[in-house]
Write a structure and sequence with these properties.
alpha/beta, 28 helices, disordered N terminus
Length: about 725
């Protein structure tokens, strides 16, 4: 159920704020030139940036060639960056993704025969999910954030969620209200759990949070916001949602507090009733302090119903409740816009029926609320809410949950969905598109595809688009790779049968079952149907195709084939065990373990699939051995148990990463096979209850231990992929 709420508390922008949204987003030529210098430093001198006036509130850009220079014009930095990326992809056949970049520009830059003009039909292009800040961004430094902000600008993003440093703001607020750091030590979570702390799901887990972290990330947030605003973005900042520390009960004994529990193995958290006068006071204090520290674009994220149902479904009550929440926001900032995610209307549809939804939304003026249809590619809530009853709203793609590693996406649906909605009169006040994935740095094709919509009003022709995508990514016109992508389109990226990507059984807690609660192995295609794509990539590798993106895709497709094959190998050792054939069981079990080791060896060739950088970057934030140990424990815990030894969320955020496979998943299976071998030797049933108890203890010991993992790649992606192909292809 975590997948149902982790996309919570988002915010965007006001419909009536349209004019000022772009009136303030003027072009900063220096920032645009600096971005060009960061992206293509050796060719930056061949680009000229000019301002382009826009009478409408929607971004536009122009590209023109003059005197052997490329002129990029835009009404703000995002438009200019988008113009740059359009030129790089359409004329230089380049590409920039999280997982593979091709910036092999021609010696002489191509000149445009005529001027190109593009205008976006979407006023808002939203980015990020609360969960992204932990599943992907927990340990990011300024260098990594700078790259992401450049990526955002080039992909047309103009409304990023910006919640780094929120804990510093709250510490300041509570200290001024008389709360000591000791009062708050059980309130702030560890760095890997801020998303769920911010959403009011848990207190203190992974802490206590060092003050040094709060200060360093306040400084980081200042840099993030300065750069985003300088490029013309309007960051979305958090607002008060009612979540208060347990110490609030002692400081304000008459306060109207409600204890609530997330039911995922964590203690109660406390929500201040919106009717309590302290609610408005706290909200005002927080926004005032936040504005002093970070400024404001009047866009506030607030979601008070994250996995918490209101006490009654009476429409009149819900209307008053919604009005109070908005009023508290308005008192702090008269220009405040409440952006609400619409996921709760899907995740708890038994409660949120038409009268309840309409009452909640209609209590706030249309120009003061914006709805995020958070996973429109999965469940278009707008279609059953009369397009959110007239509120402006945004079509978002979620795609990834928990940062799980898999080939997955709804390619055809994403290619057509936004444009179909845009041109549907029933969509009413559709104002934007966005990306709200729980984690990034996987399936880059889906995100490139989604943001292609920024500058067009019609569905994307995938047959044509995939040709350009392959050429830009692989630096070749090799038709076999386009053919491979058509196979991927019909298999891993067909968007059928399952809601999100399947995991491999190797990442699940050892079991005889073919699936576990957070390791779901059902595929949306037959495993054998993926093999022809693997064949084509291996053959392309032999031809010498070697771009960064090709290496990543070769490894990722090979990984997926092996991950799928694990289920077949599991069935083999399960059958030999049931047949009580000890000799064959040992052979089959070893084959399963060898597969895990082979996957680890393959993934070690790409940093995208390594545990070491995740752990190393976590430890890098520590100033003392104790802080480094705390951050490493946070990093280890989130991607394995998620909580304590008895966490019901174990494996929710599982990763197929080199280091994690050999050091965590493989040893678990080895211990499981020891128990099964002993059971066969003594002619008894395996004691799975005792094994489960013991393995939980072992897992927690792993989470709380410390170890250095490689941070540099080992081996050649082509050679290791070919090695796996030669070993497994005939068997498959």
């Amino acid at each position: 159920m975590i997948k149902l709420f982790r996309q919570t508390r988002y915010l965007l922008i006001v419909f009536g704020f349209l004019g000022s949204f772009h009136a303030n987003a003027q072009l900063n030529k220096k920032e645009s030139l600096d971005l060009i210098g960061r992206v293509i430093p050796k060719k930056a001198q061949f680009f000229v940036v000019e301002s382009l006036e826009s009478t409408a509130p929607k971004d536009l850009f122009e590209i023109e060639s003059k005197n052997q220079k490329i002129i990029l014009r835009g009404n703000n930095g995002v438009a200019v960056a988008s113009a740059l990326y359009y030129y790089l992809t359409e004329y230089c056949h380049c590409q920039i993704t999280w997982n593979g970049t091709n910036l092999d520009l021609p010696a002489k830059l191509p000149q445009l025969p005529t001027k190109i003009t593009k205008k976006t039909p979407y006023q808002y292009r939203y980015y990020l999910n609360y969960c992204t800040f932990n599943y992907s961004m927990s340990w990011w430094n300024w260098e990594r954030w700078q790259k992401e902000i450049d990526w955002m600008a080039m992909h047309g993003i103009n409304m990023p969620l910006a919640i780094t440093g929120e804990e510093y703001t709250w510490r300041e607020v509570y200290n001024e209200m008389g709360f000591s750091d000791n009062d708050l030590k059980d309130f702030f979570s560890g760095p890997a759990y801020f998303s769920w702390f911010w959403m009011g799901n848990l207190d203190g887990w992974g802490g206590p949070l060092p003050v040094s972290w709060m200060k360093s990330h306040k400084d980081l947030q200042v840099k993030i916001l300065q750069r985003e605003r300088a490029l013309g973005m309007k960051p979305v900042l958090p607002a008060f949602t009612g979540h208060v520390p347990a110490a609030f009960k002692k400081k304000y004994p008459n306060a109207k507090l409600k204890a609530t529990n997330w039911t995922n193995g964590f203690g109660d958290t406390y929500i201040l009733d919106s009717e309590d006068p302290l609610f408005a006071e706290l909200g005002k204090r927080f926004i005032n302090k936040q504005t002093k520290l970070f400024g404001s674009d009047h866009l506030y994220s607030a979601d008070t119903f994250n996995e918490n149902e209101p006490p009654t479904d009476e429409p009149a009550f819900l209307s008053k409740l919604s009005a109070r929440i908005y009023e508290g926001m308005r008192q702090a900032d008269p220009d405040a816009v409440w952006v609400m995610q619409g996921w709760l209307f899907y995740s708890d549809r038994k409660f949120w029926k038409a009268p309840q939804i309409e009452a909640l939304l209609n209590a706030v003026p249309n120009d003061k609320m914006l709805l995020l249809d958070l996973a429109t590619e999965i469940e278009p809530v707008w279609k059953r809410t009369d397009a959110f009853y007239g509120k402006p709203w945004i079509w978002n793609m979620l795609n990834n949950f928990g940062g799980n590693v898999n080939l997955f996406g709804r390619m055809d649906g994403v290619a057509s969905g936004p444009a179909l909605a845009l041109n549907d009169p029933n969509s009413k006040n559709l104002q934007g598109i966005g990306l709200t994935m729980e984690a990034i740095e996987q399936n880059p094709v889906i995100y490139e595809l989604m943001m292609q919509h920024t500058w067009q009003t019609t569905p994307i022709n995938l047959d044509e688009w995939l040709v350009k995508y392959a050429k830009n990514r692989y630096k070749t016109d090799d038709k076999s790779l386009v053919e491979a992508w058509q196979v991927l389109r019909q298999t891993a990226y067909n968007g059928k049968d399952i809601r999100d990507g399947a995991e491999s059984i190797v990442t699940g807690r050892p079991t005889f079952d073919s699936t576990t609660i957070w390791t779901r192995t059902k595929l949306n295609y037959k495993p054998k149907d993926l093999l022809s794509a693997w064949d084509l990539f291996v053959e392309a590798s032999k031809k010498g195709i070697d771009s960064d993106g090709f290496q990543y895709d070769l490894v990722d497709i090979t990984r997926q084939v092996l991950a799928n094959h694990a289920l077949i190998l599991q069935k083999k050792w399960k059958n030999s065990f049931k047949a009580k054939d000890a000799v064959q069981f040992k052979k089959d079990a070893q084959g399963f373990l060898d597969l895990i080791a082979d996957m680890d060896e393959l993934l070690a060739t790409r940093k995208d699939f390594m545990l070491g950088p995740w752990i190393s970057s976590a430890r890098s934030w520590g100033n003392t051995p104790a802080e480094k140990a705390l951050y490493e424990q946070n990093a280890r815990d989130l991607i394995t148990l998620w909580g304590d030894a008895n966490s019901p969320l174990h494996e929710y955020a599982n990763r197929q990463w080199s280091g994690l496979l050999n050091d965590f998943y493989k040893p678990r299976w080895e211990q499981f096979f020891v128990e099964l071998n002993q059971a066969l030797a003594s002619n008894r049933e395996p004691d799975l209850k005792t094994f489960d108890e013991n393995i939980r203890t072992w897992e927690w010991k792993w989470v709380t231990s410390q170890k250095n993992f490689p941070t540099t790649t080992k081996g050649n992606s082509h050679q290791v992929a070919l090695k796996m192909y030669q070993k497994y292809r005939k068997e498959l």
